[in-house]
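Our collaborator T.R. sent over the components below with a one-line note: 'Predict the complex.' Nothing else. No constraints on interfaces, no templates requested, no preferences about which chain binds where. So this is a plain run: every listed entity goes in together, and whatever single assembly comes back becomes the starting point for the next discussion.
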Amino acid sequence: MSQILNQSGSIDDDDAQRSGAILQVKNLSVTFVRESGALRKKRSIVNAVNDVSFEIRESEVLSVVGESGSGKTTVARCVSALAKPTSGSILWRGKDVLAFERSEMKDFRRQVQIIFQDPFESIYPRQDVLATISVPIMRLKGEKNPDRIREEVSRLLVEVGLRPDIHLHRLPHQLSGGERQRVNIARALASSPKLLVADEPTTMLDASQRLNVLSLLVRLKRQRNLTILLITHDLASARLMSDRTAIMYMGKIVELGSTSTILTHPSHPYTRMILDATPKLGSAHAGKYDLFAKSGEARLVSNRGCVFRPRCSYATEICADVEPELLEKSRKQLAACHNPLN
Amino acid sequence: MSNAPATESNASSSFLQLSDLTVEYTVEDNVFRALDGISLDVPRQGYTLGIVGESGSGKTTLGMSIMGMIQSPGKVVEGSIKFMGKDVLEMSGREMRNYRGPSVSMVYQSAMNSLNPVMNILNHVVEVIRDHSKNISKSEATERAKKLLTDVGIPEDRFSSYPHEFSGGMRQRVVIALALALNPKLLIADEPTSALDVIVQQQILGLLKKHIVDRGLSLFFITHEIALTEGLVDNVAVMFAGEIVELGPSSKVLFSPFHPYSEELLGSLLNMESNLSTLDRPSAQNESLVPHDLTRACKFSVRCKYAFDRCRKERPLLRQVEKDRWVACHKY
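Returned assembly:
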């Protein structure tokens, strides 16, 4: 067991050096204590993220895909130092983020910015667009001259497809969802970050605006040479945006590798399952629903074995006893499964 | 109504008939017309309709109107809603009570956040059943509630759990069980799956489909995910700025749309075949440009690539262009 761990660990390290990882996540675990019962006396531990390791390489887009409750947002919050891991570490260019001094942390905040899921709740409702985007310019870049701030905000608005003459003094409630998300993106870009963490940036938007925002992110990535960590539950966005994809299930990464490989030849049964459930116009599957697909409520009784076992139609005896490690299945693909497909 | 799409029969015996329905919201001195002369004739029970369009196009207001739930500052300023011959807007309190629930019921958007936090889910369902039928015993109601919850896929050992102990998908199932509790003839489902992941989404759609097939439920399925309507509903209505701009069988509208807006909507679908070249579109163009105030012109003309003179002068009406297809556009 320990041998396997070392082995896969060393594969990661080699890869990281070869490809120039700017951020490494090592054995990240986050647990929450849930209090329940009338007097909050019943306590249970929730493993939101359970021993997750991956790296983000310079100038790539990495997608983390999973259903609600799979721990993907917690990963995003840890990566952007908004949540503390219970164990494990986050390395930014080789240095431990948790051990950062004040000045190093300020620099980290400048270089790593996050876009939140809900454009309706992540902008202060009583500040106009100018004031909202000014904050990081003042706090993180130290700019104090109001004229220069205004100029910078206008430039950012144009970059994200908004018009300074119309939008500069709008309040959030005067903007559509898509426009708000653009303001969010402009605010994140204000400190000229290297890594952009986008936590479901399009889930709350209409189909047409969704495509516009994704297209904006693609353009910004090219123009600014950004690295993007995209958190999503939508395989179609992952496919469009990302070079590599990690599939998360109940706090674990179950499959990780090149996006095109994973989506054309999924190795993990869970990846196959969400691929099949992704709606697609004109597909032979339309209107044929699997009523018996087991849902995420099928929680594990014991802590042993594979987390996906209760929903897996390929499960065998070993799946109940031994937790599968994330191992290399092919040149471009890692999967945590005893009975991988293909 | 010359422009009321009727597929069969005469209007008097229709299942549901909307004529010239117009709803306005007045805030201070601003009047916002959310529905602008909607006419729709649903000939029979069992008719299934997908209602698609962007946010602000009036999809939810249409559902709320049929439920008779437009409240101040909203107001039905014109038109009528007739359910099996009875005008919904004229119903007395008692009639309304027999209408909402037993005849028409609605799954509200994000209703999963509006369950009573101090009542377990079985009691939610029991309450609805007992409130509507005086002569049912408590144990009978409980039996029926249990069956309903089982049908939507909630395991028996969870019946006494409270809403906060469930995931979003499970709560959404409870809400659907509540909407189906009184065997409605028409169910209006307003974005029932938009907060859920794809697998739970499939299960919920499967459940709705089962009720359509098994007991002839009529479904109005409101969504902005057009791909979900395929295979679930027989017909699709495309809404834009408070109007129905296209109506027809889903098998045709989804694959060869007539109206330029339907075309745009379908073109913006993100699916496993999309590629980056379709993504390279001009940014933020007219995203929020929905001119609810133009009185004469076609409302879509400001965004329409085919617009010509007549479009800016005269509002096109929804009219029949093929045997079972209606479109509001001067091109046809």
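Summary for T.R.: Confidence is low (pLDDT under 50) at residues 7-11, 282-288 of chain B.
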